[in-house]
Write a structure and sequence with these properties.
- The structure is a single chain.
- The protein has about 500 residues and is α/β, with parallel strands linked by helices.
- The chain is built from 19 helices and 20 strands.
- The protein has helices at about 5-10, 20-25, 35-45, 55, 65-70, 75-85, 90-95, 100-105, 115-130, 155-165, 180-185, 195-205, 220-230, 255-270, 300-315, 350, 420-425, 450-455, 460-480; strands spanning about 145-150, 170, 210, 230-235, 240, 255, 295, 315-320, 355, 360-365, 375-385, 390-395, 400-405, 405-410, 415, 430, 435, 435, 440, 445-450.
- Helix 10 links the parallel strand 1 and strand 2.
- Helix 3 (about 35-45) crosses helix 9 (about 115-130).
- The longest helix has 20 residues, at about 460-480.
- Bound molecules: flavin-adenine dinucleotide (FAD) and iron/sulfur cluster.
- Flavin-adenine dinucleotide binds near residues 149, 151, 172, 237 and 459.
Length: about 500
C-alpha cells in the first residue's frame, strides 16, 4: 500500500474536461492533459484492501491494488507490466470503459471510489511515452494458422494472445479499416482513432496479418476458411439493430444510429462515406443533423453518442427519449454495492446539451407531402407493477407530436448477422447469438466464437476479456496445453 492515509488526505479528482462551447466544434478527445503527479495522488487513495473487490468487478481481473501501489511509487514500468498482464488494450478501456471496477471499489461504500480508469489510462500513456510498449519479436512459432474474423476489441485481443502463443494469425475485416466498433461506432470525441493505429503498428510488427475489405462468407468462403486454417475464431460483433416498425418508418429522415455514427467517423477519418459499418451501400446518402430537430430513440451509450454527434453537426434541438422509467439518481436498492449500480448516468454528450425524457413510447413518424419526416408522435407512459411485473400503461390525453426532421434509432442490437458466413458454417444459435461452450461452437470443434457475436451486445472490456479467454481455448485445442493467462472466476455478477 503506497500511502496508508491517502484516502483520508486526497479527494477523487479526474482530469478536467475541455469547455463545452469549445469542444462541440471539433471531434477531439474531451479530457485535458494531466500531470503524472495527479495520477500519483489518485493512486495514493487505494487502501490495498485484503479482499480487493475492484479486481473482482473487472471482467479482465485487472490486478488493481498492485498497479495503484506501483503508480504511487512512480514505478511506471512495473505498473505497466502488471496492467499489461491482464489487459491487452488499456488505452481503450482507460478511455471508454464504464469502469465496473470503480462501482465495486471498497472505498466507494462511503466515499468516492478510487479513480481506477484514469490511473489505467495514465499507466498506458506513460508506458507509450517511455517507449515501453514494444513489439515482441522473439516469438517461437508453432506452425499453426488461425483465422480471426472481425477486428473489434474481441478479435484484436484474441489475435494478440494467439500470436503471443506462437500461432500465425490472420485477422479478416469487411470494413475498410481495422477496429470494429472502436473505429466505426464509438465517436472520435470519446476515442481518437490514432489510439487504435498506434496499437495496430505494434501488432503488425509482431507478425499479425490484417486483411481489410474482406467480407468472410463472400470474398472468402466458409469452406476455404476451414480448409486454410487450423482453427477459426469468429468475432463479428452483434450487428443487427433493433428496428421500430411503426407507421412512417419508411420516411426520409428516419435512420439507424449506426448509419449516422459510422458516417461521421468516416468523415473525420477523411474516408468515403458510401458504405455503412456492415459494408452495405447506403440508400440514404449523407446524414446530417445540421439545423434539424433531432430525436434520439433509446437511452443507452449509442443514443448518447448520437446526442454528442448531433450537437457537433449544429442541430437545432436534440431530444433523447427512452421507454423505461427514469432511473434513480443514486444506486438503486436492487443493485447494492459491489454490484454494477442501476442509476441515472449523465454522459459528457448529455452535458453538451440535450432534453432527456423517460417513460415515452413512440406511436408514429409523421411526414410531409414529399415523404420527409416532420414530427414524431409520442405518448407518456405510466409504469405499473402488476403481479410483480412491470406493465406500461399509456397516460390518457398525453399523446402529442414533437417536431423532428431526423430520428435516430438507438434501441440496441438483436444479434449477429446470421445469413452468410454463420449459416454457411452451420452453427447453432442461442437467443440469436452464436452458441458456444467454452468459446467452442457446438457444431464444429475447430470453430470458436467470442465477443458480442457470442455474448450479445456488451462492452469493450467484456469483448477484450472474451477475446483473451477464447484465445486460450483455441490454444488448448491446437496444442493440448496453454501458457496464456487464464482469468480467475468472478465471485459475483457484474455488468
Ligand atoms: C455507438 C456505440 C458506442 C459504444 N460505446 C461504448 C463505450 O463507450 N464503452 C464500451 O465499453 N462499449 C461501448 N460500446 C459497445 C462496444 O463497442 C462493443 O461491445 C464491442 O465493440 C464489441 O466488440 P466485438 O469485437 O465483439 O465486436 P465489434 O466491435 O462489433 O467488431 C466486429 C467486427 O467484425 C466485422 N465483421 C463482422 N462480420 C464479418 C465478416 N463476415 N467478415 C469480416 N468481418 C466481419 C465487423 O465489420 C466489425 O468490424 C458501444 C457500442 C456502440 C454501437
Ligand atoms: S477496492 Fe478500491 S481501495 Fe480497495 S484495493 Fe481496490 S481500488 Fe484499492
Amino acid at each position: 500500500m503506497g500511502k496508508p492515509t491517502g484516502f483520508l488526505e486526497f479527494t477523487r479528482e479526474l482530469p478536467k474536461k475541455r469547455d463545452v462551447q469549445q469542444r462541440i466544434h471539433d471531434y477531439k478527445e474531451i479530457e485535458k492533459p494531466y500531470a503524472e503527479e495527479d495520477t500519483q495522488k489518485q493512486a495514493a487513495r487505494c487502501m490495498d484492501c485484503g479482499i480487493p473487490f475492484c479486481h473482482n468487478g473487472c471482467p479482465l481481473g485487472n490486478i488493481i491494488p498492485e498497479f495503484n501501489d506501483a503508480v504511487y511509487e512512480q514505478n511506471w514500468e512495473y505498473a505497466y507490466e502488471i496492467l499489461a498482464s491482464t489487459n491487452n488494450f488499456p488505452e481503450f478501456t482507460g478511455r471508454i470503459c464504464p469502469a465496473p471496477c470503480e462501482s465495486s471499489c471498497v472505498l466507494g461504500i462511503n466515499k468516492p471510489p478510487v479513480a481506477i480508469e484514469f490511473i489505467e489510462k495514465s499507466i498506458i500513456e506513460a508506458a507509450y511515452s517511455r517507449g515501453l510498449v514494444q513489439p515482441n519479436n522473439a516469438i517461437k512459432r508453432t506452425g499453426k494458422a488461425v483465422a480471426v474474423v472481425g477486428s473489434g476489441p474481441a478479435g484484436l485481443a484474441a489475435a494478440a494472445q494467439l500470436n503471443k502463443a506462437g500461432h500465425t494469425v490472420t485477422v479478416f475485416e469487411r470494413a475498410d479499416q481495422i477496429g470494429g466498433l472502436l473505429r466505426y461506432g464509438i465517436p472520435d470525441f470519446k476515442l481518437e482513432k490514432w489510439v487504435i493505429d498506434r496499437r495496430l503498428d505494434v501488432m503488425k510488427a509482431e507478425g499479425i496479418t490484417f486483411k481489410t475489405n474482406t467480407n468472410v462468407g463472400e470474398h472468402v468462403k466458409a469452406k476455404e476458411l476451414l480448409a486454410d486454417f487450423d482453427a477459426v475464431l469468429l468475432t463479428g460483433g452483434s450487428t443487427v439493430p433493433r428496428d421500430l416498425p411503426i407507421p412512417g418508418r419508411e420516411l426520409k429522415g428516419v435512420h439507424f444510429a449506426m448509419e449516422f455514427l459510422s458516417q461521421q467517423n468516416k468523415r473525420v477519418a477523411e474516408r468515403p462515406v458510401e458504405v455503412d459499418h456492415r459494408g452495405v451501400k447506403y440508400a440514404s446518402g449523407d446524414i446530417f443533423a445540421t439545423d434539424k430537430n433531432v430525436v434520439v430513440i433509446g437511452g443507452g451509450d449509442t443514443g448518447s453518442d448520437c446526442v454528442g454527434t448531433s450537437n457537433r453537426h449544429g442541430a437545432k434541438s436534440v431530444t433523447q427519449i427512452e421507454l423505461m422509467p427514469m432511473p434513480p439518481a443514486e444506486r438503486a436498492e436492487s443493485t447494492p454495492w459491489p454490484n454494477w449500480p442501476m442509476m441515472l448516468r449523465t454522459s459528457t454528450s448529455h452535458e453538451e446539451g440535450c432534453d432527456r425524457h423517460w417513460s415515452i413510447n413512440t406511436k408514429a413518424f409523421i411526414g410531409d407531402e414529399n415523404g420527409n419526416l416532420k414530427a414524431l408522435r409520442i405518448v407518456e407512459l405510466d409504469w405499473q407493477t402488476v403481479d410483480g411485473k412491470m406493465k406500461m400503461v399509456e397516460v390518457p390525453g398525453s399523446e402529442r407530436d414533437i417536431p423532428c426532421e431526423l430520428a435516430l434509432l438507438a434501441a440496441g442490437f438483436l444479434h449477429p448477422q446470421q445469413e452468410g458466413l454463420l449459416d454457411a458454417l452451420e452453427l447453432e444459435y442461442e437467443r440469436g447469438n452464436v452458441k458456444a461452450v467454452n468459446y467452442q461452437t457446438t457444431t464444429n470443434p475447430k470453430v470458436f466464437a467470442a465477443g458480442d457475436m457470442r455474448r450479445g451486445q456488451s462492452l469493450v472490456v467484456w469483448a477484450i476479456s472474451e477475446g483473451r479467454e477464447a484465445a486460450r481455448a483455441v490454444d488448448l485445442f491446437l496444442m493440448g496445453d496453454s501458457q496464456l493467462e487464464a482469468k480467475a472466476k468472478s465471485m459475483f455478477a457484474t455488468v
